[in-house]
């Protein structure tokens, strides 16, 4: 359920909310009726909800039965919301810290978004101090292992309910973490612009990397035949391809996609139809990163110098463009096919002209024919003379052997 601000209290179901253009839920239609029938949005005139929208996911239970009963991809839905959210809160009960298979799958789907993830260790008053320390350490270890990141995820400890505390030894910590959590949530609207810029920069870098990869893959393909064999070879050696692209364009290894997932996606594409790399587009993306985005941020208090020199990325792109000349011209499949057709037409015209000259017995053709016949006769005479000499030599050798 999504909790949104509204002048009147009401609840709108998923199918209706997904078609309202003034709300950010249009993309949920991709998950079908199975999800939209379970999704709803609640509107209430809360002051806090004027600038923050809260999405509450259903509870996660252990066991395979829980996963099979869902008729939609729960982890993909969570990933969709997490990509568009400014903060992701993972709630854990201190007295039952076991992470189910489905919960683990959801946490794994958050890889790459760990800067948004915060953990809340709830009901921490139900265990004593010694056990709380162990639970806290175990939570940090498990989350870091699942997210595959060495950085420690921020964990807020508390007892977020109205009941009296059972163990009040850490009441000061509970109150401080609760205030820190609320302060961070209240500060989300103020930092929304910088986070949007951060997300845009991330997407631009990904587009740049993918464009370089696809252009490099296209340049590896043959013009006429053997494309399927070359495609399999490229997919099997994708790590080497990534290293070549990284070295050629000076890209960061951290911006490259995972080879396993990327290889799975590449199997469905025809490499001959991949777009050729346009250095002008790469330079536009780099200018966006180096000039336009910093200039936009400079208007809001960021530092920007219009007289900055060409960055290292720009220099590498210029060097690569100079090295390759005009890239993509001969790699374009349309141009390659046109060239093949032109060559075949020229050959056919040449054969037609030759046959016409033979038919009309042109003097040049007749003379050329006589020269070819004479050359053939000379070759036959030469081969016959050599064969006769070899036979005579063999006969003499045999006679000498018999006399002995």
Mind telling me the C-alpha Rg? 36 Å
What is the terminal-to-terminal distance? 112 Å
Helix and strand succession? EEHHEEHHEHEHEHHHHHHHHH
Biggest sheet layout: 4 strands, mixed
Please bin the fraction of helical residues: 55-70%
Question: What are the SSEs and their pairings?
Answer:
Blueprint: E1 2-5, E2 10-13, H1 14-17, H2 32-36, E3 40-44, E4 54-55, H3 64-68, H4 74-84, E5 88-93, H5 101-109, E6 117-122, H6 129-147, E7 154-157, H7 171-186, H8 192-219, H9 227-236, H10 238-249, H11 259-266, H12 279-298, H13 312-324, H14 333-359, H15 363-403
Parallel strand pairs: 1-3, 5-6, 6-7
Antiparallel strand pairs: 1-4, 2-3
Helix pairs in contact: 4-5, 8-10, 8-12, 12-13
How would you describe what is shown here?
- This protein is of the alpha/beta class and 404 residues long.
- The protein is built from 15 helices and seven strands.
- It has helices at 14-17, 32-36, 64-68, 74-84, 101-109, 129-147, 171-186, 192-219, 227-236, 238-249, 259-266, 279-298, 312-324, 333-359, 363-403, and strands at 2-5, 10-13, 40-44, 54-55, 88-93, 117-122, 154-157.
- The strands form two sheets. It has a four-stranded mixed β-sheet.
- Strand 6 (117-122), helix 6 and strand 7 form a beta-alpha-beta unit.
- Helix 4 packs parallel to helix 5, helix 8 crosses helix 10 (238-249) and helix 12 (279-298) runs antiparallel to helix 13.
- It is elongated, with a radius of gyration of 36 Å.
- It starts with a strand and ends with a helix.
């Amino acid at each position: 359920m999504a909790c949104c601000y509204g002048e009147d209290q009401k609840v709108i179901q998923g199918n209706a909310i997904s078609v309202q253009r003034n709300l950010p839920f249009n993309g949920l239609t991709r998950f079908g009726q199975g999800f939209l029938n379970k999704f709803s949005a609640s509107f209430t005139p809360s002051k806090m909800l004027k600038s923050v929208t809260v999405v509450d996911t259903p509870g996660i239970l252990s066991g395979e039965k829980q996963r099979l009963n869902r008729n939609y991809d729960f982890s993909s839905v969570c990933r969709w919301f997490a990509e568009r959210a400014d903060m992701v809160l993972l709630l854990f009960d201190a007295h039952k810290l076991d992470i189910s298979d489905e919960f683990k799958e959801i946490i794994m789907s958050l890889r790459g978004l760990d800067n948004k993830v915060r953990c809340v260790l709830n009901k921490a008053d139900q265990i004593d101090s010694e056990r709380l320390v162990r639970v806290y350490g175990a939570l940090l270890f498990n989350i870091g292992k699942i997210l595959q990141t060495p950085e420690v995820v921020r964990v807020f400890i508390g007892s977020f309910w109205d009941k009296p505390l059972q163990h009040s030894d850490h009441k000061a910590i509970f109150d401080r973490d609760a205030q820190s959590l609320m302060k961070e949530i209240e500060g989300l609207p103020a930092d929304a612009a910088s986070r949007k810029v951060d997300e845009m920069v991330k997407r631009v870098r990904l587009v740049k990397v993918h464009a370089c990869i696809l252009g490099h893959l296209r340049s590896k393909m043959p013009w006429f035949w053997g494309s399927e064999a070359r495609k399999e070879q490229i997919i099997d050696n994708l790590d080497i391809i990534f290293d070549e692209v990284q070295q050629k364009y000076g890209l960061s290894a951290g911006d490259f996609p995972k080879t396993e997932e990327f290889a799975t996606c590449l199997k469905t594409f025809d490499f001959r139809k991949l777009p050729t790399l346009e250095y002008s587009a790469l330079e536009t993306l780099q200018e966006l990163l180096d000039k336009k985005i910093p200039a936009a941020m400079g208007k809001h208090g960021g530092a920007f110098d219009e007289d900055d020199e060409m960055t290292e990325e720009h220099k590498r792109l210029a060097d690569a463009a100079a090295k390759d000349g005009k890239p993509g011209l001969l790699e374009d499949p349309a141009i390659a096919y046109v060239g093949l057709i032109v060559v075949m037409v020229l050959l056919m015209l040449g054969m037609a002209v030759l046959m016409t000259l033979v038919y009309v017995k042109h003097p040049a053709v007749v003379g050329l024919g006589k020269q070819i016949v004479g050359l053939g006769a000379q070759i036959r005479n030469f081969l016959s003379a050599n064969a006769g000499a070899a036979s005579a030599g063999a006969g003499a050798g045999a006679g000498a052997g018999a006399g002995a």
